[in-house]
Predict the 3D structure of the following.
Amino acid sequence: MSELQHAKAVVRAFYDALDHAGPPDTADAMAKHCAPDLVWRGFHPFNQIIGSEQVAERFWVPLKTSLTSLQRRLDLFFAGRNQIDGFETIWVGTMGHLMGLFDEPWIGIRSTGKVALLRYAAFHRVAAGRIAETAMYFDIPHLMLQAGVNHFAPQTGAHLVQPGPMTHDGLLYDPQEPSEGEATLSAINAMLGDICSWDVERTEPLVDELRRTWNEHMVWWGPAGIGATYTIPRYAAQHSGPFRSAFRTRRFSGDLAMIAEGRFGGLVGWPNLTLQHDGGFMGMPATGREGDMRVIDMYRREGRKLTENWIFIDLLHFWNMQGLDVLGRMAMIEPVHAAT
């Protein structure tokens, strides 16, 4: 078995054990498949947690208690060597939804008693037959919207329950042709090169820049609070253009991992970039403050260019750095809302 296939087998066994464990058995399931000093990174309010037992206690047990009958619905599963560290470490990337019955409140979000979907993506570093490091990012505002809670202005894109790839072939359980992964990584790097070289003085039309690395009918599956958008012109108008106007000063921090296999790839950072909020983002006025963005991006390539992109941004952490505590605000006003 190749190293990539072995890493996939480790993560699949972990998911199987974790997904079948009830809340009391979750710590044991994690201990069997994760390093005891596991480094786990998640979105606000969980942030970084050290140790598989602590991850079980602080994240998984409360989530499983709130979203009962929890099941994992995978859309992407692939592995690769990490470009960021010179292709030394092996990571497995996954994406999908955790679906359950929202029977108890979770991090202050009121329960509905109805089916709910927590959209997520995760990267796992596998070493010595165990998961040594995880970055698991989840769209909390999307879950809030399902519970009827919205603290953000109208989105520039559309709010949707986001599907997996149009081609329905994102679960790469079997070995893939290495050259396909290399082509995907090359396409991602070309796109990132354009983003990193952009500055406010540039006169090239944004759609022309995007057409170098994106197919015309690309889909940008953005997080709740921003939304999804389709085709290059609409992506330029509904997200990329407004985003660049809102954040003219940016500093890239580098990524934890960037991998690709077959026609799928992704990257994760902690944070990926730091931005100065000059105004207009998500309908909020300028603060002049810097804020970090922790991001996972997942991609599907068609031909030489990218055609689908799923994005996870820790918006609650970003707005916390701007002085807006969304979860705290929800805790203050939701009881009043529930009583009316």
